[in-house]
């Protein structure tokens, strides 16, 4: 064991504050990492404030981790001291179920071990996330940062990037497809870039016409203002896929009507229950599919990093001193960040 430092919430109602705690010494298959950058995800806020009812305190968020390997266990073959690596939303899984065998650890039938606020599978301790100077993770759940990639803007690819890449890949998005992206936050702006790089014709759906110019700067070919009935009617039956990143409840019916027959509307947000109710006719009469998707497996997380490196894609970020994490949460709730805060962990030493 060794002493680490990080920012944690002690309860659902207390702000994040510095805390020292114990990290385990590397086990045989473990990689110890000095954390250089950590992205700030909306899930971090939900968990710190126990908005999903599953928080365990102290709760140290952070699952968009980029750092440098400082030590490896004796059985580690894939990484060496000095390697630049990443850790995303999971740090372990059962490794033998049908999902794990298919490189889909996020759907582990026994439940994956998440990067924070989940019991460690070996010693039962509460996992502590990336708002910290270090982390120790099984090598299977560590990915390599491609050479030359900017480390800070790579961090959000480990959650926001894989969450949008995985469903686009799974559903076979390719050149010639018409893809609509719903919402342009951390996820949506990555969705635009990734779908565009896959060759799709990309349209952003947004409630505010003021975002049109910015959407085009991000690579969108078209913009549809979703509150404008005329614009929505003009794209009826138009899209092959919709990637829905809107994090709050919204009416899916007007969007479903913009899909072709056999079109797929993919949800990545936990907007439950779906309200107002879904009209079954919007699915049945056109054989449309309403689908969901959760982050992505470890192999695919490596794949999205490599894809982003190849296509020159990164997340638009605002660097953050960790001392300002609570203000950053307030700004995120107000939608005031373009598009992801990334903590510069060097500020933890201050
Ligand atoms: Zn996340
Ligand atoms: Zn499993």
TrEMBL record:
The lineage of its organism: Bacteria, Pseudomonadati, Pseudomonadota, Gammaproteobacteria, Pseudomonadales. InterPro entries: ADH-like_C, ADH-like_N, ADH_Zn_CS, CAD-like, D-isomer_DH_CS1, ER, GroES-like_sf, NAD(P)-bd_dom_sf. Residues 11-343 form the Enoyl reductase (ER) domain. It comes from Pseudomonas brassicae. Belongs to the zinc-containing alcohol dehydrogenase family. Its cofactor is Zn(2+). One of its GO terms (molecular function) is zinc ion binding. This is NAD(P)-dependent alcohol dehydrogenase. Coiled coil: none annotated. It comes from the Bacteria. Keywords: Metal-binding, Oxidoreductase, Zinc.
């Amino acid at each position: 064991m060794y002493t680490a430092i990080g920012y944690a919430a002690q309860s659902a109602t207390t702000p994040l504050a510095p805390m020292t705690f114990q990290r385990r010494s590397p086990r045989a298959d473990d990689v110890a990492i000095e954390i250089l950058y950590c992205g700030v995800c909306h899930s971090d806020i939900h968990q710190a404030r126990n908005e999903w009812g599953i928080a365990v305190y102290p709760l140290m968020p952070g699952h968009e981790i980029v750092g440098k390997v400082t030590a490896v266990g004796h059985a580690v073959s894939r990484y060496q001291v000095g390697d630049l690596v990443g850790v995303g939303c999971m740090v372990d899984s059962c490794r033998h179920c049908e999902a794990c065998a298919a490189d889909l650890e996020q759907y582990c039938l026994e439940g994956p071990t998440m990067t924070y606020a989940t019991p460690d599978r070996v010693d039962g301790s509460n996992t502590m996330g990336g708002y910290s100077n270090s982390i120790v993770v099984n090598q299977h759940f560590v990915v390599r940062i491609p050479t030359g990639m900017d480390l800070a803007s790579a961090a959000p690819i480990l959650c926001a990037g894989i969450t949008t890449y995985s469903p686009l890949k799974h559903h076979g998005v390719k050149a010639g497809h018409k893809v609509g992206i719903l919402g342009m936050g951390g996820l949506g702006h990555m969705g635009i870039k990734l779908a565009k790089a896959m060759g799709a014709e990309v349209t952003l759906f947004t409630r505010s016409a003021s975002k049109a110019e910015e959407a085009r700067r991000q690579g969108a070919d078209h913009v549809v203002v979703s509150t404008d009935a005329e614009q929505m009617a003009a794209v009826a039956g138009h899209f092959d896929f919709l990637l829905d990143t809107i994090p709050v409840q919204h009416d899916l019916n007007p969007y479903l009507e913009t899909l072709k027959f056999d079109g797929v509307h993919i949800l990545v947000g936990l907007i439950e229950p779906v309200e107002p109710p879904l009209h079954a006719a919007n699915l049945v009469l056109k054989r449309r599919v309403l689908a969901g998707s959760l982050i992505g497996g470890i192999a695919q997380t490596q794949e999205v990093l490599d894809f982003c490196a190849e296509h020159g894609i990164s997340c638009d970020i605002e660097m953050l001193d960790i001392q300002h994490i609570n203000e950053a949460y307030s700004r995120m709730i107000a939608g005031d960040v373009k598009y992801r805060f990334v903590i510069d962990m060097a500020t933890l030493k201050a």
